[in-house]
Design a protein that fits this description.
Layout: H1 31-34, H2 96-118, E1 130-142, E2 153-157, H3 159-162, E3 166-170, E4 184-191, E5 197-203
Parallel strand pairs: 3-5
Antiparallel strand pairs: 1-2, 1-4, 2-3, 4-5
Subcellular location: Nucleus
Keywords: Nucleus
Organism: Burhinus bistriatus
Length: about 200
């Protein structure tokens, strides 16, 4: 009987909202407590320091370059005509067959350099089993999508001797080596099973 009833809230007489006391833990984490009032950032177009030199190096200031004409220059082609571009050309739009031909030609050219420099005999095929040490020619490749390591090295043989075949390499007998994918090398080793070559010597350009 002595208790006071809470008044109903009506649009004409709204009930005042309760405010959080300072002792309430919720007041410490209210938006007003951790949202400082900051000035909005200036728009990039409205910046006032446009064209201002912020830092400089050296003692020369205001240096300008002037051309000396060159209107009568005529370009001159050097080398064979088949090696020069005389019309529009789309970069990196080469056909896969053309790219393959260039890579095989590069292996053959560097193979001749390796043979003459290291006084090597004729190269053998990487696909044929060999109980005795043989010398093969090719370029280094990787059998996976990751980085090249000692367990993922393969040799892509040349077209003349190996018809472009591949064979995994065992490099455990080499004291030291440094290889990268695409490197053209000549290797000496044994391929007793025809499935893996144990390398004993490495010839580089």
């Amino acid at each position: 009987q002595g208790s006071q009833k809470r008044g109903n809230s009506t649009p004409e007489n709204p009930r005042p909202k309760r405010t959080l006391s300072s002792r309430s833990p919720y007041a410490l984490f209210s938006p007003n407590s951790f949202s400082p009032s900051v000035t909005p950032s200036q728009k990039y177009r409205g910046r006032s320091s446009r064209g201002e030199v912020v830092a400089s190096f050296g003692s020369v200031q205001g240096l300008s370059w002037n051309g000396s004409g060159g209107g009568g220059c005529i370009p001159k082609l050097f080398g064979p005509p088949e090696e020069n571009l005389t019309k529009s050309y789309k970069f990196m739009f080469q056909k896969a067959l053309d790219v393959r031909e260039v890579l095989l030609w590069r292996i053959q050219e560097l193979g001749d350099v390796l043979k003459s420099h290291h006084h090597l005999e004729d190269f053998a095929s990487v696909l044929l089993p060999a109980q005795e040490p043989v010398t093969v020619l090719g370029q280094i490749g990787c059998d996976g999508n990751g980085k090249l390591n000692a367990k993922s090295v393969v040799l892509e043989g040349d077209r003349e001797h190996s018809s472009g075949g591949q064979i995994p390499l065992d490099l455990s007998e080499l004291k030291e080596y440094s290889l990268f994918p695409g490197q053209v090398v000549a290797l000496e080793g044994t391929n007793s099973s025809g499935r893996r070559m144990v390398v004993s010597k490495l010839y580089e350009v």
